[in-house]
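Appendix B.2, paired examples.
Example (i):
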Amino acid sequence: MAKVTLEQWRMFQAVVEHGGFSQAAQAVHKSQSSINHAVHKLQESLGVDLLEVRGRKAELTDAGRILLARAGGLLNEAEALEAVAGSLASGEEAVLTLAVDVIFDYDCLFHAIEQFAARFPHTRLELRETVLSGAEELLLQQEADFILSARVPQGFVGEPVARVRFIPVAHPDHPLHHLGRPVARKDLKACRQVVLRDSAVRNRQDSGWLGSDQRITVSNVQTSLELIERGLGFAWLPETRLRESLLADRLLPLTMEEPWEREVTVYLVYADSDKTGPAAAFLIGALRDGLAPMD
């Protein structure tokens, strides 16, 4: 059993911070006698003197200085624990898991997470980045509270929240940009395609044109971008992730013989919308606010 209480440490800290017992009593709205009693019991229980009263001022002993430093961390942890308990008591979720397809607009995602972190500091957010059917699989396995995905699992309802355009791109020096004519299907077949691997484990699916004899398969959009920027292939990539590369002319859209740009709708899908708590509702609202309105 602990011999001292958090309240005793708080009273001791208040006396030091405010320079005396009467000053501490005014600051924490307690009687001077109750503060005197708390600090006396603290010293008695610990068996060391923490304060020396000189005139009207209470000063720390060497032992008091050492223990006050440790007590400060203890009191901060206790306050944080009480704040977490208060959040849980009010119905806030302890943990949220969001699975998001890597084609989603990350600028919007990060801005929403910034707002979420400020509003719900005690709710842990687990972000699962997925490709193709990966988010769908996590939802079906009950490993995500909600997903942002281009695929809606059977038996679930998806709310369309964004459209993402895929653009065929390559490095400006890539041979496909120097044919002197629009790029045909046969031209692509002779070049290396960089492909994103489906992050699902059970039922992986391919997406996009995969007719190239040469192929590099990666699991991350950033890796795909860096490979293409080094001239190692071409790819269809989401416009949401291409902005910097296109603005800096590190990549250029391919001029295609066929209209091979395509649009994909991203859906918001809940594991169980009836169980959506305040933290999840806030994060979803912040995401919606950051997205361009759907036509």
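Example (ii):
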Amino acid sequence: MPDGSSPDTLPMHGTPMPPVRTDWTRDEVAALMALPFPDLIYRAQTVHRARFDPTEMQISTLLSIKTGGCPEDCAYCPQSAMHEDGGVKASRLMAVEEVLKEARAAKAAGAARFCMGAAWRSPKEHDLETVCAMVEGVKALGLESCVTLGMLDNSQAHRLKDAGLDYYNHNIDTSPEYYGDIISTRTFQDRLDTLENVRDAGINVCCGGIVGMGEDSTDRAGMIATLASLPRHPESVPINMLVRVEGTPLADRAEAVDPIEFVRTIAAARITMPASRVRLAAGREDMTDEAQTLCFLAGANSIFYGERLLTTPNPAAMRDRQLLDRLGMHTSHKQG
């Protein structure tokens, strides 16, 4: 079975450069994830070291610029207006200068990328104009910019590109087969159409999914296979562990995923998408330092700094710095 570890070009860090494939199947990914754990981690490390410094961690900061009131019914999300007990009240879009103040603080804390999220199905014209001003301001600070605004049509994507946007986040969330169990207000194809519009505009893609929503291991393999078989892999692949929020349909419905199984998902993402940044995203607040370390060994090389991810908790920056120091790792000031 192909594992993404055959030589392709000269090594970067003493190991053969793995080729980038875009034809991964669910069965191949499932077979990878079923490997004995030492073998899986070895393969992931081999692929990771070929393209990245294994001691380097890319840092991003995420800010909710418009919270709550979303018309979508994503079962995991407290920002949905359909989850009345979710506890997140709708707010207006933040002012540009207020956002830039947060961006300056993020840069001072060591972030290389500033991500802005708005709880919309898709942006309205006047809101998109304001977001473009935010992107321009973030870029002027010397930070990479990323936004997640819901679905985009082609013209909206090109407007964001003209403003200087570096990355657009739009997760597929789960496998195509399980998607309908989580969201009914938009289709899986809607997700793929937005990704295509973003690519067509020349914007880098940030796209991943969520683990722990009641899916099984074949769905996790299907999610990774879908990402790894896109015409071009996402430059950033955030892998989230579900944060159960009271008032959402998944608060009591889904059982927590074993941490080792979560690490297997990270490793599969690294092996199948060797040139991508694999980001350990939501859910870190509930992970032990040991579990996070295993994720780093499996190829995760990006995290979010800051005490909140949109509406859910995130480990304090001091805890992250202490863990990276204990591991002899350092943060990256490179963009990309």
